[in-house]
Amino acid sequence: MKDIKRIVLTGGPCAGKTTALVRVIEHFSSLGYKVFTIPEVPTMFTQAGMNYLTKNRDFFYEGEKATLEIQLALEDKFTRMAEACTEPCLIVCDRGTMDISAYMQPEMWEDIMNRVGTTTQALRDGRYDAVLHLVSAADGAEQFYTTSNNASRNEAADEAGLKIARELDKKVINAWTGHTHLRVINNHEDFDAKINRVIKEISAVLGLPQPIEEERKYIVEVVGDLPECIESDITQTYLVADPGTEVRLRRRGWHGKFVNVHTSKKKISGSEEIVIERQVPNNLYESLLGQADPYRQTIHKLRRSFIWKGQYFELDTFLRPVSGLTILETRGITDDEDVNFPPFIRVKEDITGDTRYYNYNIALRN
């Protein structure tokens, strides 16, 4: 069967999705890909007369159910069209199915899924190859926040509207949490940097070689209350692999749910690597543990992920094989940008590029 990648481009209000879509089409078309784009269904429905702010519960319910049904139908139809093409194809969805769940109570979402005949696991975990979440300009780039380019947007460009936009941003991230390739794309002083990160992440999904980049890392101490964040429990085991290849098996759990991810990183030169991620079922996860690298211990850590002033952070507190170590890692901050350290974090040491603190080396047996 033809390998067709489906990517969700999502985010909070005024995140830059429209511009990103144009650039994605231009870039990957120039590489020989046929790029299909699935339009944002709620916008189509709003323009056609749907009112998502209605007080009429039955009307709202039928509208949201229809939104999910049309979203699924569009994606399936375009996938069949892509299968008929001779050139390599890429499908980019302007928002995906799980975005719908962020705008209603969980009980209604469960009921709609039951009526449609699907589940959260099927929609979130098995339908898309990557989910790229662009952070709303309302968080860290307020000077660029505007509602003038989307007539269907309901959040005003004042402080109350900005607060609503930030809350929606986090709800959408929560809806997609658990997807094996969820990436949160920061705001940047230079908007091109945001778009370039989108292109880089899609390139990685397509298996194109990517430059090896050092994410900034710091040993820190938490000195205050964290904002609303996503907490997850991570167990990480390294498997026996060929020279030049790193293979990792990770189980991530939150709210009693677990996802297993098999990741392979292969260096193809001193500056480039190919990273392949895939979700694996529980029985395969247990089987693969039999290939654990005997020279490395299993890592167990608590991760807290959050956005602060438009930048995405992962705060890892290690439980074993070391304890008392907390590392703050940035995601997608360019070399010429400053890190917006939160006031509840005290930086003790910059360990960016220090190989002693790579997870792969932390796992080494003494």
What's the arrangement of secondary structure elements?
Layout: E1 5-11, H1 17-30, E2 34-38, H2 41-48, H3 57-83, E3 89-94, H4 97-101, H5 106-116, H6 120-125, E4 130-134, H7 159-176, E5 182-185, H8 191-205, E6 210-211, E7 217-222, E8 230-239, E9 245-254, E10 257-267, E11 272-279, H9 282-288, E12 299-308, E13 311-320, E14 325-331, E15 345-350, H10 359-362
Parallel strand pairs: 1-3, 1-4, 2-3, 4-5
Antiparallel strand pairs: 6-11, 7-14, 7-15, 8-9, 8-12, 9-10, 10-11, 12-13, 13-14
Helix pairs in contact: 3-5
Can you describe this structure?
- A hairpin with a 4-residue loop joins strand 13 (311-320) and strand 14 (325-331).
- The strands form 2 sheets. A 10-stranded antiparallel beta sheet has the order 6-11-10-9-8-12-13-14-7-15. It has a 5-stranded parallel beta sheet with strand order 2-3-1-4-5, with helices on both faces.
- The protein has helices spanning 17-30, 41-48, 57-83, 97-101, 106-116, 120-125, 159-176, 191-205, 282-288, 359-362, and strands at 5-11, 34-38, 89-94, 130-134, 182-185, 210-211, 217-222, 230-239, 245-254, 257-267, 272-279, 299-308, 311-320, 325-331, 345-350.
- Helix 3 (57-83) packs across helix 5 (106-116).
- With 366 residues, the chain is α+β, with helices and mostly antiparallel strands.
- It is globular and about 65 Å long.
- The protein is built from 10 helices and 15 strands.
Beta-strand percentage range? 25-35%
| Helix and strand pattern | EHEHHEHHHEHEHEEEEEEHEEEEH
* Rounded Rg: 21 Å
Helix share of residues? 25-40%
Number of strands: 15
Low-confidence segments, given as residue ranges, are: none
Biggest sheet details: 10 strands, antiparallel
Helical region count?
Answer: 10
Strand order, biggest sheet?
6-11-10-9-8-12-13-14-7-15
Distance between the termini: 46 Å
The coarse overall form would be globular
What is the residue-mean pLDDT, rounded to a whole number? 91
Helical/strand content category: alpha+beta
